[in-house]
Design a protein that fits this description.
Elements: H1 6-17, H2 21-33, H3 40-48, H4 50-54, E1 59-66, E2 71-78, H5 84-90, H6 96-107, E3 113-116, H7 129-134, E4 139-147, E5 150-162, H8 168-195
Antiparallel strand pairs: 1-2, 1-5, 3-4, 4-5
Length: 196
């Protein structure tokens, strides 16, 4: 006796997350298009179109562990003008903002993290708040992939910056749903560009 097929698996996800018909179509398109994304420009287009329908954002920071450098290396993609100082800061794994977010993500047992930028005002990343707000970024969402049983050994890490105040749970659910695709696509893009 055979089990449920892929279509019924997607239907179960749709039912569990209460996705709208447009969001369901976006999910299918994300999955269909993912194998064809091999370059940074394709990743940007994919992230702004179908991924953006489920995770609306103006900024996405993608990190992948670089074995030669022995650190997570980040790339910033943004669809709005952001201060150069902020972009430079986001590109550094040791920045106060990324250090704080990675630590919070690990403390949350590697679950999706969604927070209002205002929550950072009294913490170690307070210097980033005015720059994020100047760029219109109100909400940050982070998630990643770490080695099994070793949450501090990150393989990939993603940070989304959004102009709108978002309801945390649906965004976190969508981020959890899309993480396998984000991870595999970004790893492929990085590997392809290194090979070239």
């Amino acid at each position: 006796m055979s089990g449920p097929g892929p279509a019924s698996g997607i239907q179960m996800v749709v039912d569990d997350l209460d996705l709208s018909p447009a969001q369901t179509e976006a999910l299918v398109r994300v999955i269909e298009a993912a194998p064809r994304v091999v370059r940074r420009n394709q990743f940007f287009t994919w992230s702004q179109s179908w991924v953006g329908a489920l995770l609306p954002h103006q900024l996405i920071l993608c990190g992948a562990y670089d074995r030669k450098r022995r650190e997570v290396v980040y790339e910033v993609f943004n669809s709005v003008v952001l201060p150069q100082t902020l972009l430079a800061l986001l590109g550094r794994a040791d920045s106060s903002l990324l250090t704080l977010l990675v630590d919070r993500w690990i403390d949350a047992e590697a679950q999706p993290l969604v927070l209002d930028v205002g929550e950072l005002v009294d913490g170690p990343a307070a210097d980033c708040v005015p720059m994020l707000q100047d760029g219109g970024i109100c909400t940050l969402a982070a998630h990643g992939v770490a080695r099994p049983q070793r949450p501090s050994e990150i393989e990939s890490f993603f940070l989304f910056g959004c102009r709108l105040g978002l309801t945390a749970q649906p965004f976190a659910d969508h981020l959890e749903l899309l993480l396998p695709n984000l991870h595999s696509v970004w790893q492929r893009v990085v590997a392809r560009e290194v090979a070239l």
